[in-house]
Amino acid sequence: MAVSGVLANVPWWKSGIVYQIYPWSFQDTTGDGVGDIPGILARLDHLCDLGVDAVWLSPVYVSPMADFGYDIADYRDVDPRFGTLADLDRLIAELHARGMKLIMDFVPNHTSDEHPWFLESSSSRDNPRADWYIWHDPAPDGGPPNNWRSMFGGIGWKWCEARGQWYYHAFLDKQPDLNWRNPKVVAAMHDVLRFWLARGVDGFRVDVIWHLLKDPDFRDNPPNPDWTPDEPEVRHILQIMTCDQPGVIDLVKGFREVLDEFPDKVLIGEVYLTIERMCAYYGEALDGAHLPFNFHLLMDPWKAEMIGWLIEEYERRLPPGAWPNWVLGNHDNARVATRLGPAQARVAAVYLLTARGTPTLFQGDEIGLTNGVIPPDKVRDPQEKNEPGLPGHDRDIARTPMQWDASPYAGFSSVEPWLPLVPGWETVNVAAESADPASMLSLHKRLIALRRKHPALSIGEVRVLTAAGDLLAFERSLDGERFVVAMNFGSELIETSVPAASGGQIVLSAKGGRDGEIVGKRLTLAGDDALVIAFG
Ligand code: GLC
Hints:
Helix content: 10-25%
CATH superfamily of the largest domain: Glycosidases
Largest sheet: 8 strands, parallel
CATH class of the largest domain: Alpha Beta
Strand order of the largest sheet: 11-10-9-5-2-1-13-12
CATH architecture of the largest domain: Alpha-Beta Barrel
Structural class: alpha/beta
Number of strands: 20
Radius of gyration: 23 Å
Bound molecules: alpha-D-glucopyranose
Shape: globular
Number of domains: 2
CATH topology of the largest domain: TIM Barrel
């Protein structure tokens, strides 16, 4: 979307809104039940109507799909399931023609075991790529070198007969970890980035960026005293030696240097870490990631006091000049409409789209998609297959197809989709919700339009006014423009005094029906409602 006025001098990734497309599930045009790039092209009007600025596209590279594209066999081509490189070039051009950006997923921690680099590396101990992956001799008893585990369950090592050695895989054994201590790996991956940047992509979301380095001495991870049996097995141990290692930020800076060879690109990094550690990924001189993903709305309890604390803690920990960001959902976590329930999901949408920081919106959350219901014989996610039944561990539930209309298969496909539609799709879909001013989709459109219209809501300052009980109120301001956002995290009516809100005019409410009201000395806020109040 074109920007003007005060936003014209602000980088697009600060003022803009990112929308994540999960290509398996956006739109199928070939009739195989799986989404594809021509499908995305056919649905660009939805992105324009919504008003987002950038698409982050989950991986579309050539892949055996053991982990749904996060296992890449060719970083420079498109998997035939999704189309061709020419289709992707067309997507870049068509997004740009509409004033939108394309952020590619970049998966540097591991390749597929079918990648030619791994085929060569695993063939012998003395081939030219022998040290491109993390190889180790057996322990004295012939077993794996140490206690490192896979994030997807089981040991993190796999035996390779040809080398008489083990290789480390933080995820599936079909996803061997690259050796990022090898400068040749670094250079090869930098060239992959340049390949895409030269094609016109506007940035990258870097997969598991905090995993890139592992302890060079291969020391055991310590046990986790707090592990409980309803948690994945990997949490038995603390990832002290396998994640967030000294030196990893230098690799992030290396990516950033490559991006800076091109104007106006963005580097987003996936980091599930404390706020303090997450902030390290900006780099002290803001020479790391522009936006280390902030997943705390996914990780922390949805409580007024907690969110108020998060805002303040984040603002305190951000290096000077660093820009925040917020995420409510993605392809790895339960849907926000299920996590918080439909009413609070509306309150959460108000937060995401009035917060100080770049919002990332996951496809389907704008129509209030809830978790999918996946029968055991339809499970596709390797994480769920390896460790079935753990709460919050099944990722298929967030990956079900987009629901476009009430036609068969919700307009997603002409055949049965790869994952089932969410029950109720006949009414929870883009077409039905477009026609309903009270729908989740209409709420998103109004919030986005408001954020676009008022720079105070995107790039303005933030100040927490109150965060107690069920009430969170905060202020956004810029150059004399001021908003107060008041959110009710509970189902009971709140009647209280928020002096900074009095005299303002309600311009949006999550539940609807209060537009134009002037706030008096007392603020009344219905259960599960959130208000955006404007001044001046
Ligand atoms: C990231 C991706 C996830 C994938 C994992 C391994 O967390 O978001 O989907 O399984 O990395 O690449």
